[in-house]
Design brief:
Order of helices and strands: EEEEHEEHEHEEHEEEEEHHEEHEH
Shape: elongated
Number of strands: 17
Radius of gyration: 25 Å
Structural class: alpha+beta
Oligomer: single chain
Number of helices: 8
Distance between the termini: 51 Å
Strand content: 25-35%
Length: about 400
C-alpha cells in the first residue's frame, strides 16, 4: 500500500514536494509486532553525506585571582587568532572577575586545551574547568544538491525522530515549528486548553494536526532546558545576526538538513561530561540512545471475521486515525495520541467496571502487548546506522584533538 505526504515549504504553500511511504507487513516473531504493518519512507539515505559536528561548547572556570575579561581575550586571540569574549559571571570592582564562562564556536579542542592551560598558568584555577553546555549537530548533505532532496530528508527526520517519551512530560516541550502555517509557532498536535475533556479528544483527532513546513525550524523540548532541546532545520543561511539584519546565504553544496541537540548542564552530566578532560573518554556514540533515536510506527492488521462487525469497524477506524496522525505529526505525535487514549480509558474506567458488575461479568484484562517505553514502534534501522556512523566519526575527531 502506498501513502503520499505533501510537504510544503511555507504557509503560502509554495513548491510542494511529495514524500512517499510504502506500507508492508512485518515479518517478526515478537508478540508485540505479530500481525502488524509498518510505514517506510521512500528515500535513498546513501544519496546523502552525513556528518556530526560540535557547534559550540560552554566552559566555566574560576580563577585564583581577579582579572578583566579583555585580558583573557587578549591571551586567547594571541593563541588562536580568534576573539572569543569570555563572559564575567561575578563582575566586581574595576570590572574584574574570578568566574568566567567561555563559549567556543566550532571548537578545535587542541586549541581550546592550549587556551585553558595558558590561562591556568597565568591565573591559576580553583578547580578543573567545567563543561556546562554543548551543542552537537548531525548534518545531511544531498550528494546531488536540490531543494527537493532537502525537503524529503526534513520530512523524514521530523516524522521519525523519537528521543524517548521524556520529552512529552510538559506541553511546552511538545513538537512545534516556527514560523508556523497559522501562528508564529504551530504545535504539530492540536490542543484545547480551556476544556480538559475536549483536549483529550483534540489530542486524539488527526484533523487538528499541522504538519511541519520544510522551510521552518522544528523544535522538541523547552528553550534553556537543563537537559536538552532539539532542532531540525533546512539550513540554507549562516552567520545570521538578527539585530543587525545580516546573514550569508550558503552555496547549494553547503545547504543541508540539520538535527541538533543542545545539552544543558543536566544533559552534560547524563552523558558523563563534567570537566573538560572528560572529552578524552566521552562515548559520543552513546548519545544515540537518549538523544538521536529514530523510530517507525506499526499498525494492527484488522482481518474480516476476527471480531464482531461493529468492533471490527471501530478497530479499522482507530488504525486509520493512527496512520493519519503519523503521516501528519510523526511518531512523537502518534505517542501523544496513545497517551491521550490512556487518559480517556482511565477517565471512563469506573463506568466501564460498573457496567460489567451490573451484568455479572468481569471486565476483560487490559492488553499488555506493546506497553513498553516504545509501544509498538520499531527502530528505523537504516537511519540509525547512518547516525551511528556520523557520531562515531565525531568521536574519533574529538579524541584526536584531545590528544588521545
Amino acid at each position: 500500500m502506498i501513502h503520499d505526504v505533501t510537504l510544503y515549504r511555507e504557509k503560502a504553500r509554495k513548491d510542494p514536494v511529495v514524500l512517499t511511504y510504502v506500507e508492508k507487513t512485518l515479518r517478526s516473531s515478537q508478540k508485540r509486532l505479530v500481525g502488524r504493518t509498518t510505514l517506510t519512507p521512500q528515500i535513498d539515505l546513501e544519496a546523502y553525506q552525513c556528518r556530526a559536528v560540535v557547534d559550540w561548547i560552554d566552559i566555566h572556570f574560576e580563577l585564583s585571582r581577579r582579572t578583566q575579561y579583555w585580558k583573557l581575550n587578549e591571551r586567547i586571540e594571541k593563541l588562536t587568532s580568534r576573539k572569543e569574549y569570555p563572559e564575567a559571571l561575578d563582575l566586581g570592582e574595576g570590572k574584574t572577575a574570578t568566574r568566567y564562562k567561555l563559549r567556543v564556536q566550532e571548537p578545535d579542542f587542541q586549541a581550546v586545551r592550549k587556551v585553558l592551560d595558558d590561562i591556568e598558568r597565568e591565573y591559576g584555577f580553583v578547580a578543573p574547568a567545567e563543561i556546562r553546555g554543548i551543542e552537537i549537530s548531525i548534518d545531511f548533505y544531498p550528494k546531488t544538491p536540490s531543494e527537493e532532496a532537502r525537503a524529503r530528508m526534513h520530512g523524514v527526520l521530523v516524522r521519525h525522530f523519537f528521543p524517548t517519551t521524556r520529552v512529552l512530560r510538559s506541553n511546552k516541550m511538545w513538537p512545534r515549528f516556527m514560523p508556523g502555517s497559522v501562528e508564529k509557532t504551530d504545535y504539530t498536535v492540536g490542543r484545547n486548553d480551556s476544556d480538559d475533556s475536549l483536549d483529550i479528544v483534540d489530542r486524539m483527532t488527526p484533523g487538528m494536526d499541522r504538519s511541519a513546513l520544510y522551510g521552518s525550524t522544528y523544535y522538541v523540548g523547552e528553550r534553556d532546558d537543563k537537559r536538552a532541546l532539539w532542532r531540525i532545520q533546512n539550513k540554507v543561511l549562516d552567520k545570521q545576526n538578527v539585530a543587525a539584519g545580516t546573514r550569508d546565504e550558503l552555496p547549494d553544496d553547503k545547504k543541508r538538513i540539520r538535527i541538533e541537540v543542545t545539552l544543558g548542564q543536566e544533559g552534560c552530566r547524563e552523558i558523563g561530561l563534567e570537566n573538560f578532560n572528560d572529552l578524552e573518554t566521552l562515548m559520543i556514540t552513546r548519545l544515540q540512545k537518549g538523544f538521536f533515536q529514530f523510530r517507525k510506527p506499526t499498525f494492527a492488521i484488522v482481518r474480516p471475521g476476527g471480531v464482531r462487525s461493529g468492533s471490527e469497524a471501530v478497530k479499522r477506524k482507530v488504525e486509520e486515525y493512527r496512520r493519519e496522525r503519523f503521516l501528519n505529526a510523526g511518531v512523537l505525535g502518534l505517542q501523544i495520541r496513545e497517551d491521550a487514549s490512556e487518559e480517556l480509558r482511565a477517565l471512563h474506567l469506573p463506568g466501564i467496571k460498573k457496567w460489567h458488575r451490573r451484568r455479572g461479568g468481569k471486565m476483560p484484562p487490559k492488553a499488555r502487548t506493546g506497553v513498553g517505553p516504545y509501544g509498538t514502534m520499531i527502530v528505523y534501522e537504516d537511519l540509525a546506522r547512518v547516525v551511528e556512523r556520523a557520531l562515531a566519526g565525531l568521536q574519533r575527531r574529538v579524541r584526536k584533538e584531545m590528544g588521545v
